[in-house]
């Protein structure tokens, strides 16, 4: 025990800590002051930056909300309004056709004179009833010896049908049917739905318009052996062909004369035309219908860029407009 106590008794007293130099205290205080200033600076600048970003985010949200509201209005109201307007235009177009189409009785009869100068070169006096040439007197001058006048005719017993008219009428009827397939109370939910309907109508109208302005080209041998050539009385020789077709607002007759020159077949052609008033009106209405479709397609295509745009994609409070 003594030995143990002597350890404690012999222990030296702890030396007092030396005082902290004043310069160190001053430096620490300066550092704390700098830290405080730095914190104050960050505190003062961050709110400004966050506010700017928040304002930008709010503006973007509001813009998206406005676009969604406009999109839903277009789907709910404007699409149906345009379809109704388009149907009125297309029915007016249908009423111009000389064939039965959408409550149009058709069978309109008109007389035309198609000739060139001099008239001996080519002349046709004809009656057009609906989409059919029911009577025609045709004369043209041969382009090879003996250069005489060739005559033939079309009679009611064997009329000449203009298939372009019926084709255009069928395409127009299809376009109207696509509109009728959409119920007035139906609510479109996506841009793809609208684009599908408008696309079908556009295609039908384009086919109808092209049927009238761009006739199908046929090889000369197909024309000579064609069904319509059997409508002519008297029949023409196998080196002659006659063709009636529509191009834009005109009815055209073309005569083709084959010639064998040293074993090579070539043909000369001559054509005459006359303007058809109802064709001009039909093309105007078809063009107006195409423009209406394209306007709606362009507008919907803008919204289709936003793939998440569907009816009901906004909150219920934003739907009250």
TrEMBL record:
GO terms for cellular component: RAVE complex. This is Protein rogdi isoform X2. Residues 29-53 are annotated as: Disordered. The lineage of its organism: Eukaryota, Metazoa, Ecdysozoa, Arthropoda, Hexapoda. It holds the Pfam family Rogdi_lz. Residues 34-52 have a biased composition (Low complexity). Belongs to the rogdi family.
């Amino acid at each position: 025990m003594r030995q143990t106590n002597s350890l404690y008794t012999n222990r030296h007293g702890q030396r007092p800590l030396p005082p902290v130099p004043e310069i160190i205290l001053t430096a620490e205080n300066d550092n704390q002051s700098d830290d405080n200033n730095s914190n104050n600076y960050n505190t003062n600048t961050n709110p400004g930056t966050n506010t700017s970003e928040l304002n930008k985010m709010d503006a973007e949200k509001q813009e998206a909300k406005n676009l969604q509201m406009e999109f839903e209005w277009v789907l709910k109201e404007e699409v149906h309004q345009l379809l109704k307007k388009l149907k009125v235009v297309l029915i007016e177009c249908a009423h111009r056709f000389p064939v039965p189409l959408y409550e149009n009785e058709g069978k309109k009869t008109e007389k035309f004179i198609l000739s060139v100068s001099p008239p001996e070169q080519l002349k046709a006096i004809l009656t057009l009833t609906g989409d059919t040439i029911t009577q025609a007197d045709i004369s043209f001058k041969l382009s090879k010896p003996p250069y005489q006048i060739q005559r033939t005719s079309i009679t009611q017993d064997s009329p000449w049908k203009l298939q372009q008219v019926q084709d255009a009428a069928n395409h127009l009827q299809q376009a109207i049917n696509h509109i009728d397939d959409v119920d007035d109370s139906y609510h479109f939910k996506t841009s793809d739905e609208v684009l599908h309907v408008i696309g079908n109508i556009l295609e039908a109208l384009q086919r109808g318009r092209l049927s009238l302005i761009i006739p199908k080209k046929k090889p000369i041998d197909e024309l000579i052996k064609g069904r319509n050539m059997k409508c002519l009385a008297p029949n023409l020789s196998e080196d002659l062909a006659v063709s009636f077709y529509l191009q834009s607002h005109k009815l055209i007759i073309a005569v083709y004369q084959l010639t064998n020159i040293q074993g090579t077949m070539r043909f000369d052609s001559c054509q005459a035309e006359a303007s058809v008033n109802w064709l001009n009106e039909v093309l105007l209405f078809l063009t107006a219908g195409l423009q209406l479709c394209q306007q709606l397609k362009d507008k919907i295509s803008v919204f289709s860029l936003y793939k998440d745009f569907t009816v009901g994609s906004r909150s219920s409070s934003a739907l009250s407009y």
